[in-house]
Amino acid sequence: MLDYVRKNKAWTIAIVLIFLLAFWLRADFLTSVKHNISHDTKYYNEMVHRLLDKGIYSYKEEVPNARVTPGYPLFMTAMYLVADQIGVEPFPLIRWVQVLISLASLALMYMIAMQATKNKWVALLTIFVGAIYHPFIWTTGAVLTETLALFLLMGYLSMQLYAFRTQRKRDAALAGILLGLTVLVRAEFLPLFVPLYGLFLLQQWRQAKEERGPSKLAVFKKVALLGIITGLCLSATMLPWWIRNVVTLGEFVLTASQSNPFSAGTYPNKDYTDRIVPKPKEMSQEEYAWARLKAGFTTQTWTYVKWYTVGKLKYTYSHMFFGSGHSPIYHAYPNVAYLHILVVYSTIITLLGLLWRWRHPAAMLAVVIVIMSMIRLVFVPEYRYNFTVMPLFIILSTWLGVYVWQKLWAYARRGRAA
């Protein structure tokens, strides 16, 4: 490590300066604004006090439930205990810890960029953009799942890419554990490893064919074993949660029992006054949602098709996530939305290019974006849902930028040489 630093002093200094910039922006934000407390944060606060005072794990209720996964509430509980021991308020402590988590996420983004593109300039620009991207700054002040979920997701993806490279069982197991921890914070990432292993299998089949390597069956067995190990370790990480739900609630809950996001997603353009079908009093919220979908796709087909494709995608990705809100609004530089728009739209070009270069390691990042976007289509669209995949957008966007710059530079050099 020390030898690398000595041989790459300028590079190391650049990385250190970017991390110092990232820390300064986050610290300046935390100390210069008044932070709003969202409804979710209030419910989390009540939940933690209920857990500490009465030993009851429940969200919005006084009786045990499984309406939210336990990752973030337990993180908050640990912070409350630490805050009590050192004599400080828990919310400021959580925010400062989230600053450190955000910086760790930048380091993981650097690693993923190197693993996916094998280009150090892409990695450097990725962490620079990540350092100044405002949602990554704003969310450090929000006592919500986003900062922790992003860190764990980046940790899982980095380990998964590493496991694909080494093809070691131990690395596949660690990837499963990290994915399990991610799911315990944000449940929607549960099926993510399946399509990733599917693409990895296709890549390995193509590689074996080109190199006249092992048979398709042999490759399948090896990849399937790694995938099973990841799945089993994911399940082992989730197992205490499953056991708790069976013992305490008398039912198996895979992730969480809250169905509001699915039900709310059945209202085109988020028009909650829409009553396409009447709701009988005895009908549950989930049953009513399915009734709305059936009626919507039958009687208002184009409206519902548009809403469940481009409508929700546009709503999800067209704006930045602002965290819990704060005042006065914090801008480290003017026109902050332009960076978000540039990253999102330039990434579309990269995604289209990866359709032809699907054997490239960066295709794994494209799969994550596509799969998570498809999962989002099931639920109500919110700006906050773009947050956890924005690091991948940034990596693919900077990769495109570096590629275009290198092509233009090479063209200019050939022109001067001629």
From TrEMBL:
A cellular-component GO term for this protein: plasma membrane
Presence of keyword Heme: no
Keyword annotations of the record: Cell membrane, Glycosyltransferase, Membrane, Transferase, Transmembrane, Transmembrane helix
Protein's name according to its UniProt entry: Phospholipid carrier-dependent glycosyltransferase
Keyword Transmembrane recorded: yes
Compartments where located: Cell membrane
The ArnT-like N-terminal domain, residue ranges: 89-243
TM ranges: 93-112, 124-157, 177-202, 223-243, 337-355, 362-379, 385-405
Organism domain of life: Bacteria
